[in-house]
Amino acid sequence: MLTVDFARFPLAAGDRVLDLGCGGGRHAFECYRRGARVVALDRNSEEIREVATWFAAMEEAGEAPEGATATAMEGDALALPFPDDSFDVVIISEVMEHIPDDKGVLAEMVRVLRPGGRIAVTVPRYGPEKVCWALSDAYHEVEGGHIRIYRGDELLGKMREAGLRPYGTHHAHGLHSPYWWLKCAFGVDRDGEDAALPVKAYHKLLVWDIMKKPLATRLAERALDPLIGKSFVAYATKPHLPASAAPDAK
């Protein structure tokens, strides 16, 4: 399930891509399939080992084109172990809401992104996220949980302050907001067989949708995304000119 829309965020074979805070690796895997030279970085060593295993399996199965490369590594988003201008593309998906120093993370991403490079940032959307916080303290008070809720204009403002030039936004995962509202209402810590019946039923619907991609749910999500899309997605470029000399983004 991708949050970044690669129709709006074009990726060329051979692009150097950093998936920062890669988690389970969903965007890194897609970039690898598209022929990119991918680095998937996360501070969670267990997830990095799992991503590395999947990269190896993809290579063995011939899922990535010739010339594509993939590396999984543990690292700190506030002290990236890369030189300036190392990447053509940076993706950070559902990460910044967890990090106290979000401006520091943006600064590091801009540092390692080459001039003219592209960045995609996704965070939980303000409205649906507010509902989750209202329904469940456990949803956001766990260690490593969400520490802030972004308004779209706030995130775009921080991106501009960091020297980026936003060029597009959209919302994603309209079908997923009701699932999280149900989960928060019935107990966010109740998983598997312990989950409430409505949560189990809705989860089955989401799994079916992800696996089968039927036209009915694709159309439903397209209609719901602008209204209750779970994620806010912003795309930007790093200007060739210094931030102080670049014209304001439109």
Molecular structure report:
This is Class I SAM-dependent methyltransferase. Keywords: Methyltransferase, Transferase. With 250 residues, this protein is an alpha/beta fold. It has nine helices and seven strands. It has helices at residues 26-33, 45-61, 102-112, 126-135, 138-141, 152-161, 176-186, 197-212, 215-228; strands at 16-20, 37-42, 69-74, 87-93, 113-124, 165-172, 231-237. A seven-stranded mixed β-sheet has the order 3-2-1-4-5-7-6, sandwiched between helices. Strand 4 (87-93), helix 3 and strand 5 (113-124) form a beta-alpha-beta unit. The model is unreliable at 245-250 (pLDDT under 50).
Write a brief structural summary:
The chain is an alpha/beta fold and 250 residues long.
Task: Itemize the secondary structure elements and their pairings.
Layout: E1 16-20, H1 26-33, E2 37-42, H2 45-61, E3 69-74, E4 87-93, H3 102-112, E5 113-124, H4 126-135, H5 138-141, H6 152-161, E6 165-172, H7 176-186, H8 197-212, H9 215-228, E7 231-237
Parallel strand pairs: 1-2, 1-4, 2-3, 4-5
Antiparallel strand pairs: 5-7, 6-7
Helix pairs in contact: 4-7, 7-8
